[in-house]
Structure formats: structure tokens, C-alpha cells
Amino acid sequence: MATFTKRSGNWRAVVTKLGVRQSATFPTKAEAQAWATQIESEIQSGQRGQVKAVTFGKLLERYALEESPKHKGEIWEKRLIKRLATMPIYSVKLANLSADDFAKWRNSRLKKVAESTVRREWILLSAAINVAINEWKWISKSPLDGVKRPKDAPPRDRLFSDKEIELLTYTLGVDGIPKTVTARVGYAMLFAIETGMRSGEIVRLEWKNVKGSVANIKDGKTASAKRQVPLTPEALRILSLLPKEADTCFNITDNQRDALFGKAKRKAGITGLHFHDTRANACTKLAKQIDILSLAKMIGHKDINQLQVYYRDSAEDISKRLK
Predict the structure, then answer these.
(1) How far apart are CA 213 and CA 235, in angstroms?
(2) CATH 1.10.443.10 fits 162-321, yes or no
(3) Among this protein's residues, is 276 annotated catalytic?
(4) CA proximity to 154, closest of 312, 318, 319
(5) Which H helix or E strand runs over 218?
(6) Per-residue model confidence as pLDDT tens for the chain (323 residues)
(7) Which residue among the candidates 58, 90, 310, 312 is catalytic per the annotation?
(8) How far apart are CA 261 and CA 58, in angstroms?
(9) Which listed residue (119, 218, 274, 285) is catalytic?
């Protein structure tokens, strides 16, 4: 940001940007403004080399502001970056940022969370660093190079069992027209099992986007990025029970879904199950009803191979269909 002050007939320009402060004096305001614009551009692009004084936290904040809104995981990315603000690596200057800083971050996180969580966080940090290298020109080499990433976990094979669905339905108070937020979370779970929609898509599904037996989903950041999800009779029945008192069908937030679903799991004595596993239940069930191309279109995968992540029918179940 630049400020301009007139002193003794001259104009003093002060540029403060990305932790860098520059000032100069000129005979006219126009000259001061032109200089300030040039200096801001050079600082932004890193041409002056002064951007190295910027911290890794500032790099992540810019990424959250400019890049995260382009991604489906925008909310998760911003939450993670906010959590990182409490960690030592956040305040390290780019000039001093090294593989050792990331190794310490990794080791610290592994003491608190699962390897799979650290891998997801790693991917975000790597993406932010790559943007800073290739587009912003803030740094020339990734400090993650040479740091060992936690091993990939084996593919999940967890599905909601019929008994678990029954227990969670009861625990969440699903019975007729939902009168509580908890019950609406329960219906969101059942709706996810029917449609294979992502949990965030369900939370943000609006009544205006439900046309007949189809839900129109925004599937990206551009206006044209959309997909249509055909709704089963059971999915339509669930929608028919929901009050239309809000713009969104289920009238719940991401935080309410996570907190109340987690509470219901604990109360029901269920472990190792994620709300997102509903997508696998839906994919596994729908694969028996529709062709693979239709399923990929419904689930929202351009690469058919990605369906293998969610298709979790056991070998025993497959063998039964061969008889």
C-alpha cells in the first residue's frame, strides 16, 4: 500500500507491502505515484529480492486469498492455514526457510494426528510453495525437497453397515419431519448414501437447484462447472420431509455436520467411520444399478479409475453375483 505526503513543495511516497517498506521524494505527485506503482510491482514479483523478508505465513495467507477460492476444498484449506498460524514454521522468513523447518513441522504433527492427515496438509503446503515459485517468483527452490513425506495409507475399505446405518439413524433422531439440527444431519447422511454427493455439496444444496428428480450441483469455481445428480425415490422422499424455511435444503453448516455426526458415532459406539464414507456406500450400491460411465458422471469423476477409491464391494459379494 502506498501513501503520499506533500512536504515543502515536494511529494514523499511511502510503499509498504509484504513486510517491505520503501520511501522516496519527488517534485510532483504524478512522479511519486509512478514510482510507487513500479516499486509495488517489483516487490510483488520478487524482482528486488526483498520478498525474502516475508514469512512463510504471509505466503500461505496470500495463497488462501488468491488460490484457495479456486478449489473445492477452499474451506478446509483456509482452516488449515489458520491452524498453522500457531506453529513455529509460520513465522520463519522465506530467506531462512529450509528442509529442516518442514521436517520439524512433520515430526510435530505426527505426534498429534494420523499420517493421512499430515499427507493432506503436506499436499497443500507443497501446492502453495509451487505457486510461490512458478507464479509469484518469491522463492526459487522448494524447501520441501529432500524431506520425506509420510507413506501413503492403504486404500480405505470401510463402508456403513446396515446395522451402523440403523444405529446412527436412531441416535440422530431421524423420524418423520426433522425438528432439530441433529435430525437434519441424520437425513443428510441418508441422502449422501442415496446420491453419492459430497458432504459439502449436500450442506450447500439449495431448493432452487432441485428440479424434479435432479439436483444441479456447482462442481467447480467457474459458472459453467456444473453437474446433474439424478435423485432416487428415497432421496426425493427425504427432501419432501425437510422444511423449506431456509435457502438450503438441509439447513446445516459444515461444523454442525461434523460435530453432531461425531457425537452420534460416539454415542452409538461406532469407530473408524467417516461421514465421507457415505460416498463409497453410494458408489458401491449404484455400480450394481447403472453403467460405469453414468456412475462417473453422477459421482463427479472425469477419470473412471478414480471410482475405484469409492467402489468397495468385497470379493465375496462379487462372487455371489457370478453364480
Answers:
(1) 9
(2) yes
(3) no
(4) 312
(5) strand 214-218
(6) 788 888 888 888 888 776 567 788 888 888 888 888 887 777 665 555 556 678 999 999 999 999 999 887 888 899 999 999 999 999 999 888 899 999 999 999 999 888 888 998 999 999 999 999 898 888 888 999 889 988 776 666 788 899 999 999 999 999 999 999 999 999 999 999 999 898 989 999 999 999 999 999 876 555 556 788 989 999 999 999 999 999 999 999 999 999 999 999 999 999 989 998 898 888 888 777 776 677 666 777 665 555 555 555 555 554 455 45
(7) 310
(8) 34
(9) 218
218 is known as an active-site residue: yes
**Active site includes 198?**
yes
**What is the DSSP track for 148-205?**
PPPPPPPPP-----HHHHHHHHHHTT-SSS--SHHHHHHHHHHHHHHH---HHHHHT-
Is 71 an active-site residue? no
